[in-house]
């Protein structure tokens, strides 16, 4: 059986205010969520790490495979009215949040769709809840706030107004990001950059992202 509740995604309305996005709670089926978390790769640094740098196994490996599969893509294409067939995907994995993370941004232009899957078992902190923002300069002006737990899925279409960010949080915060990007060159360049910043962080754990 699929780890993902594709039926729930199918039944979710994609919103268009303030930009195109959708949220699905329990997108990872609650009955398999603990098993996926158990196989989440151990991570020591803050920042985004490409899967190639991590030990990917078991239910976590299955999860990445399903996210990269044709059913999930078809639903995202349908929800956002896009043909993604010629675009490569790129994954990054996070285990910890640094207090400087979460500053308001739109994501880079090379990303077409951003997918976030939140992998914490619970979330009690006020910080670290991603906000779908109405502007680039006010973290309090948001359409929705997404607590990063329980296999919640957030998908948005990147644009010059896809503003998002969160209040500062420092500590464990697991999230998978997947993007459809404009070309394979982007994947290569980005993943090289992630590997490089990870090496720097190992030398100086206090270096900014
Ligand atoms: O982890 C999140 O909630 C959002 C991360 C994000 O916006 C990014 O990495 O571009
Ligand atoms: Fe982002």
From TrEMBL:
Which Gene3D superfamilies does the UniProt entry name for this protein? q2cbj1_9rhob like domain
Which PROSITE patterns does this UniProt record tie to the protein? Answer: FE2OG_OXY (PS51471)
Q: InterPro entries, from UniProt? A: Oxoglu/Fe-dep_dioxygenase_dom, Pro_4_hyd_alph_FE2OG_OXY
A GO MF term? metal ion binding
* Domain Fe2OG dioxygenase: residue ranges: 78-183
List keywords of the entry alphabetically: Iron, Metal-binding, Oxidoreductase
Name the protein family: Belongs to the iron/ascorbate-dependent oxidoreductase family.
Q: What is this protein called?
A: Conserved protein
Source organism of this protein record: Tepidicaulis marinus
